[in-house]
């Protein structure tokens, strides 16, 4: 890897301390549920889907595990390491689904340790991003990435693992710039084995293949990276039901507008198929997921590296990115779920679980339409402006 103009130590230390603060003092139950399920790997359970189908009615937490097997193995592997760090109390806390779990004296330790891999992935993304910009933009990019509120919220307050597939999409982007298309597609396939969305990015790499044989190699690389971790589970009906009938595909593809926009991006990308920088394509696709779906907060992490990269290169887009972030947070806080707003503070004040969601306390006004319109307008501007600029400079 080339020499990096990495941020000054003081900048990194400040950003890490800020992340540790958010990781320690904020909590969403999804963190607990994911690692509760992943904890069964330590007990020798390989097929979590069949196990839950047979046993979940007798377990203290009866929901299904709706992520691919590689996610189970990745989180389960870290759960084993985290148990060695924290001791047996972690498993007892993960199994406690009463309100008492918020009063556990080691709560802050548990939620911090469980989030530590996300901190590593976060910093690795920055390291990769810095190889993709001119040295004169590295300080600006470092500031944008290290202190943006979206990653602090989605990664460290909510504690979702989407930063892991996001890391692989950035690595894939870097490989494409080096014309290593088959490895780039394979990395996307592995990312899709954690969460499915990187498959949407594969066609843009295929377009860069100059021959049918290379197209085939790229396509097979992506499919192999995606399917190999899942092959042993395809004979399991509970796996099919849990993973392929989850809300992700439904939320994205229930509206034709996303498909139309995605086809438009494919057309733009095919026109510029000799351009190896796929930042506009990767950003446009992942941004469109937020623009045209009822998204989860953590889905913003998918597009964040590419938006930050674009902002660092073109500061004039900062105002539109700010509008998009404003609309994003407003729409999130309008969701009637207290754990997306005040409930995140429950490690500090457990009684906040009794407070109604923020959305329930607002007057009945069309806030959703207002902020959805702002999200669409700013998103359209960012994507189309970026494609236009890329076409003019390719």
Automatic annotation (TrEMBL):
Record-annotated membrane-spanning stretches: 12-28, 70-95, 107-130, 150-174, 186-207, 213-236, 248-270, 317-335, 369-390
Pfam families: GT87
Keyword Thylakoid: no
Membrane topology category: Multi-pass membrane protein
InterPro entries: GT87
GO annotations of cellular component type: plasma membrane
Keyword annotations: Cell membrane, Membrane, Transferase, Transmembrane, Transmembrane helix
Keyword Membrane attached: yes
Compartment(s) where it occurs, according to its Swiss-Prot or TrEMBL record: Cell membrane
Record GO terms (molecular function): hexosyltransferase activity
Family as reported in the entry's similarity comment: Belongs to the glycosyltransferase 87 family.
Protein name, UniProt field: DUF2029 domain-containing protein
């Amino acid at each position: 890897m080339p020499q990096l103009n990495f941020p000054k130590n003081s900048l990194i230390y400040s950003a890490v301390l800020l992340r540790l603060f958010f990781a320690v003092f904020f909590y969403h139950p999804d963190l607990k549920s994911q690692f509760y399920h992943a904890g069964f790997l330590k007990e020798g359970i390989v097929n979590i889907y069949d196990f839950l189908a047979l046993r979940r009615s007798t377990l203290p937490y009866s929901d299904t595990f709706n992520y691919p097997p590689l996610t189970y193995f990745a989180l389960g592997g870290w759960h084993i390491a985290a148990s060695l760090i924290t001791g047996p109390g972690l498993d007892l806390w993960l199994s406690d689904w009463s309100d008492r779990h918020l009063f556990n004296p080691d709560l802050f330790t548990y939620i911090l340790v469980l989030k530590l891999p996300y901190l590593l992935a976060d910093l690795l993304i920055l390291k990769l991003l810095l190889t993709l910009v001119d040295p004169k933009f590295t300080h600006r990019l470092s500031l944008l990435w290290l202190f943006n509120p979206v990653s602090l919220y989605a990664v460290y307050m909510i504690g979702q693992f989407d930063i892991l597939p996001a890391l692989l999409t950035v690595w894939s982007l870097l490989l494409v710039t080096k014309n290593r298309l088959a490895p780039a597609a394979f990395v996307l396939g592995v990312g899709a084995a954690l969460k499915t969305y990187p498959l949407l990015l594969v066609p843009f790499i295929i377009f860069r293949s100059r021959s049918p044989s290379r197209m085939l190699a790229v396509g097979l690389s992506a499919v192999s990276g995606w399917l190999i971790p899942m092959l042993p589970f395809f004979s399991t009906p509970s796996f099919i039901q849990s993973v392929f009938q989850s809300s992700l595909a439904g939320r994205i593809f229930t509206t034709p507008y996303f498909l139309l926009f995605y086809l438009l991006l494919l057309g733009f990308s095919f026109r510029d198929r000799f351009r190896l920088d796929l930042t506009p394509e990767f950003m446009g696709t992942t941004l469109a997921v937020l623009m045209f779906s009822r998204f989860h907060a953590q889905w913003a992490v998918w597009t964040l590296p590419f938006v930050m990269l674009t902002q660092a290169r073109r500061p004039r887009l900062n105002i539109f990115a700010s509008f998009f972030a404003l609309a994003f947070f407003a729409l999130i806080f309008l969701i009637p779920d207290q754990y997306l707003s005040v409930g995140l503070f429950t490690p500090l004040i457990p009684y906040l679980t009794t407070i109604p969601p923020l959305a329930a306390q607002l007057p009945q006004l069309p806030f959703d339409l207002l902020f959805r319109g702002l999200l669409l307008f700013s998103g359209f501007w960012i994507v189309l402006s970026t494609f236009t600029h890329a076409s003019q400079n390719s």
